[in-house]
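Reminder to self: tokens first, then the designed residues, so the page reads top to bottom the way the pipeline ran.
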């Protein structure tokens, strides 16, 4: 365990570069990360107010949703830190700008990432606007990410804790959003954050991290999706056209999926390699390294770059999913202002609807939605 004395804490605090004492509204989630963020800012002398964002109301039961416990944890943390706490409902905005996109994606046969849109549309837009109307100078969150001033504007950077770095989920932030955001955990690791929480006796110091899509929680994914979209069964076919079984609806499957296919037999496991909406067929192939699961290039549209300007063509690294190593690639700009990435090594299970995020060393430049 790492021990934190007063000098070490001060050294950490002064890595958060704010030139004056400010009014900062912290998005408290009930987790340890946002709680420690609020503590660090309060210790630095800023006026800190906590806001809990309630983004989902439909089917919000105790069985699947932790919102009641999260609110209780937020209130307890606010009491310990001696800061104000508000509960603000953004459920309308969430349905309009995140959930609608989520349903449209699945109905069109792609696999969207609503958590990325939640950050750009709710946490750093609806919440940011709410905080600015309160007279805040900045908002702060418990994200593991940093930012830096460049010649072309502010850009996000990877966090010190590369295992927890969340720049992938924040690549859609623009200049206005980045400039009003503070990320107190950019120089801390997760164990260090938990240590700080333990030392100041926060009740959520060892609380498990939340996982999965926020509005689904622990409820079965297929059961949830079937309430909003009509599922249509169809054929599961091999790459050579052999019928292997029947799927329960293309919306339930994603490229690279192995579990839940309902087909077995001799040899290597089966994986989803494609979805044909026109014929309503799910294509599968055997083996994790099957050629149909490996692609050397992609096209991305619906682009967003932190400076508002497309990067120059050239060599960068990119991620096509959160939990992957940066992959070397060559970026080129197409006539319609979409981008093409050609990878040095083939990438596994590139999935339409997911995001590709582009980096220059530790700088998060931005990215877009994979179209093919």
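Designed residues (372 positions):
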């Amino acid at each position: 365990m790492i021990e934190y004395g007063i000098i070490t804490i001060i050294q950490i605090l002064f890595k958060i570069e704010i030139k004056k004492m400010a009014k900062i509204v912290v998005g408290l989630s009930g987790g340890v990360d946002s709680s420690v963020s609020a503590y660090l800012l309060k210790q630095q002398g800023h006026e800190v107010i906590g806001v809990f964002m309630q983004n989902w109301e439909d089917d919000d039961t105790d069985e699947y949703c932790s919102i009641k416990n999260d609110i209780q944890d937020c209130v307890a943390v606010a009491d310990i830190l001696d800061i104000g706490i508000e509960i603000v409902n953004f459920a309308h905005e969430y349905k309009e700008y995140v959930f609608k996109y989520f349903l449209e994606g699945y109905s069109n046969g792609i696999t969207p990432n609503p958590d990325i849109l939640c950050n750009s549309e709710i946490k750093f837009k609806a919440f940011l606007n709410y905080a600015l109307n309160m007279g805040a100078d900045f908002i702060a969150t418990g994200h593991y990410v940093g930012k830096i001033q460049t010649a072309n504007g502010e850009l996000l950077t990877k966090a010190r804790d590369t295992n927890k770095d969340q720049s992938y989920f924040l690549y859609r932030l623009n200049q206005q959003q980045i400039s009003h955001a503070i990320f107190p955990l950019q120089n801390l690791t997760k164990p260090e954050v938990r240590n700080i929480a333990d030392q100041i006796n926060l009740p959520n110091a060892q609380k498990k991290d939340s996982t999965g899509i926020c509005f689904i929680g622990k409820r079965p994914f297929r059961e949830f999706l079937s309430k909003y979209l009509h599922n249509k069964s169809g054929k599961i076919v091999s790459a050579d056209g052999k019928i292997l079984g029947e799927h329960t609806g293309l919306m339930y499957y994603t490229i690279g999926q192995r579990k839940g296919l309902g087909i077995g037999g001799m040899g290597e496991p089966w994986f989803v390699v494609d979805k044909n909406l026109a014929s309503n067929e799910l294509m599968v192939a055997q083996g994790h390294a099957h050629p149909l699961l490996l692609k050397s290039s992609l096209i991305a549209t619906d682009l967003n770059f932190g400076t508002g300007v497309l990067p120059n063509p050239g060599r960068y690294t990119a991620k096509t999913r959160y939990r992957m190593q940066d992959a070397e690639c060559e970026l080129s700009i197409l006539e319609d202002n979409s981008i093409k990435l050609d990878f040095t090594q083939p990438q596994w299970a590139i999935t339409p609807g997911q995001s590709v995020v582009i980096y220059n060393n530790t700088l998060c430049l931005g990215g877009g939605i994979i179209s093919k």
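Confidence is low (pLDDT under 50) at residues 1-15.
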